[in-house]
Specification:
- The protein has eleven helices and twelve strands.
- With about 325 residues, it is of the alpha/beta class.
- The chain has a domain of about 230 residues: Rossmann fold (3-Layer(aba) Sandwich).
- The chain has a seven-stranded parallel sheet, sandwiched between helices. A three-stranded mixed sheet has the order 7-9-11. It has a two-stranded parallel sheet with strand order 8-12.
- Helix 1 crosses helix 6 and helix 2 packs across helix 3.
- The radius of gyration is 19 Å and the shape is globular.
């Protein structure tokens, strides 16, 4: 039996569907309030619970040999940052400790490239890519989400050193279907398709098909070395290149105005201040613009070499995302 946390989400639901396609039994930990649309039609065993509830984790883990801990609080802005640390750090610690008590055979923990370092050239400019060994510290983390995931990964590394059979995967920027919330990148695609992106900033992302990310989790379970990190990524692209791809796919024009970061920071500051008053997410968050100052370029060759990580077409993944958002009512026209 496999336990998957975060199974109702973007990456987690694809992991579930791929496990089921292999004929494996799957149990999912779901909160009562979680939307279960992504699990419709999937034959899974559901166990209600929460990462902060050790008793519910114990019940969910009973009889499970393998655990995919995918669940995370992925918000670049929240009126209460303590929730990020409770879910991502304390929740991960709870999963690890309960899994140890249950004597599970193997765990794959879903981290993020946001918890990794940025490669830099000698003049301080961002280099082509970073890898699993690029130096990084808590001081380098921008915002509460990245800090919480950095601290959570530290918990996982310590548990591996203490003998827990856990492997770490660091997805870059997945794109594709079932981005139900959506993620910040998915929201960027939605905004583009709805004509709400008149300009862009100079930044870059490493894109990968979400189905390849899910496959990478299964491969890490089979082939990953305990305590090791594996970047699940594919193609480094500037934001301008991504928007041009979306324009070709959708038929909408790509923005041609490049907004200086200093102006974007000003817009984000006003938007974030307004959000603190209204308690509603800002249109542009301060943290997202600060993060965009660095090109999030990464080298996934370790996962390709050691795990056999698939490297499917990024254009096709973006096409699947556009189709899914249109089909599910995220686009006005």
């Amino acid at each position: 039996m496999n336990l998957v946390t975060g199974a109702t989400g973007f990456v987690g639901s694809h992991i579930v569907s791929q496990l089921l396609a292999r004929g494996e039994k799957v149990r999912v930990l779901v909160r009562p309030a979680s939307p279960a649309k992504n699990l419709q039609g999937m034959e899974v065993e559901r166990s209600q619970g929460d990462l902060t509830d050790r008793a519910s984790l114990k019940a969910a883990l009973a009889g499970c040999r393998r655990v995919y801990h995918v669940a995370a609080d992925y918000r670049l802005w929240t009126p209460d940052p303590s929730a990020l640390y409770l879910n991502n750090v304390v929740g991960t610690r709870n999963v690890l400790e309960t899994a140890r008590e249950a004597k599970v055979e193997r765990i794959v923990y879903t981290s993020t490239v946001g918890a990794l370092g940025h490669a830099r050239s000698g003049d301080g400019a961002a280099s082509v890519s970073a890898n699993e060994e690029t130096p990084v510290s808590l001081h380098d983390m921008t915002g509460h989400y990245k800090r919480s995931k950095f601290l959570a990964e530290a918990e996982v590394t310590a548990a591996a050193r203490a003998g827990l059979p856990v492997v770490i995967v660091n997805p870059s920027t997945p794109v594709g279907s079932r981005d139900i919330k959506p993620t910040p990148t998915g929201q960027m695609i939605v905004d583009f398709l709805n004509g709400r992106m008149p300009a862009y900033v100079e930044t870059g992302l490493n894109l990968i098909d979400v189905e390849d990310v899910a496959a990478g989790h299964l491969l890490a379970m089979e082939k990953g070395q305990v305590g090791q990190r594996y970047i699940l990524g594919h193609r480094n692209l500037s934001l301008k290149e991504i928007l041009e791809m979306l324009a070709k796919i959708s038929g909408r024009p790509a923005p041609t105005v490049r907004l200086p970061h200093v102006i974007a920071l000003g817009v984000a500051a006003v938007s974030t201040l307004a959000a603190q008053i209204t308690r509603r997410p800002p249109l542009v968050s301060w943290e997202s613009v600060r993060i965009s100052k660095h090109k999030m370029f990464f080298d996934s060759s370790k996962a390709v070499r050691d795990l056999g990580l698939p490297q499917g077409s990024v254009e096709e993944a973006l096409s699947k995302a556009v189709y899914w958002f249109r089909k599910n009512g995220y686009i006005r026209n």
